[in-house]
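The instructor's notes for this session suggest beginning with a concrete chain rather than abstract definitions. Hand out the sequence below and ask the class to guess, before any prediction is shown, which regions might be ordered.
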Amino acid sequence: MTIRAGSPSSRAAHAEATARERLRRQRDLLRPLGWAVIAVVAATSLTTPQAPAPRGGSAVLTLVLVLYAATTVTVISDRFPDRPRSFQVGVIVVMGAAGVGLVALQPRGATGLAVGAAVWMAITRLPLTPGVVVAVALTLGQDVAALRGGATSAAVLAATLLNALLGLAAYVVRAARAAQDRTELLLAQLADAQDEQAHAAALAERGRIAAELHDVLAHCLSGAAIQLQGARVLATREPTSPPVREAIQRASDLVDDGLTNARAAVGALRGEPLPGVADLPGLIAGFRRDFGVPASLTVQGRAHPLAAATDLLLYRAAQEALTNVSRYAPGAPTLVSLHYESGRTRLTVQDHAAPEPQLSRSPTDTPHGLAGVGGGHGLAGLGERLEHLGGTLHAGPHGDGWQVKAEAPT
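After discussion, reveal the predicted structure:
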């Protein structure tokens, strides 16, 4: 299954981590058994009278026993499963060969356990086909060594059956572990597929709602914009007081803003990316180009990722503040400052042109004829949304101009 961004999902990664942890626990449980096999093989090899052997047979037996113990300790170590496959094959083959050598040198002891342990490791650790080949080869080598050492046919058959049982048990353990790992991974992938299906269904429903909103709002607001345009033309031809013309202009601006915001809301419903503080340079450039606002941007502190809601609200606060500057203080030099702090992010928009009394930008002190037609409600709404996130928004006179300051937790 293909996961978003081309990487395994957290569920699949968790399933794989669980499989590795399960393998580690199983190896921890079996490790004492490996030490026991080394102890039993060493004890019987060193204490059981040897078969007639050429001079120096004891030294050779000791060397082979040390080689077997060293490779077995390597095989049962924690790091062995992480080693390259070729290294694992080599160590297990040397371990089994040392076991066959012990059987040849000391057929009367419990040296057959050494070969049986190598057969177990070959089946559980190596790919199935190479593991079976190695296990069969070690069993045949053990049988030949035992027969040459004078073992009876019954003893050789018993050792062969023991290896076959160990190999079968190892295969069952291996298959059970693989089946459990595969089941957990499939369950994780099924959960991911269900999430993808639910996400696709949600996007489809949001797309349907977005289409409905677009059709309704675009029709209504576009009609209102045409009517207001006609009213503005009539106001220029007929004797009309300045407050009325200002009210018509303000209503026209609000309709234009409504169309812009409606398109943004429809885009959000359709899953389109929402703007954030990373888009502030483009926003400021647009106000300089379209509205003649000589605004600039400064960024202080070390930038860090913001929550999606915080990112959007800080962008909207800058957008609303710059809109107010273009309406109430056109041409005023404006500075947009973004401060990254530990745990919080602050956005400040400050212009340097003292507002005239009749163009106060306070939500409670709107110009004559514009009461109830915007005039600060955008900032008020943003302030309420920021408060829900644990942030604040303040707007008011500052020095020789007006300042809007928004803060929000990271």
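Then share the key points. The chain has two domains: 4-192, 276-410. Confidence is low (pLDDT under 50) at residues 1-7, 355-377.
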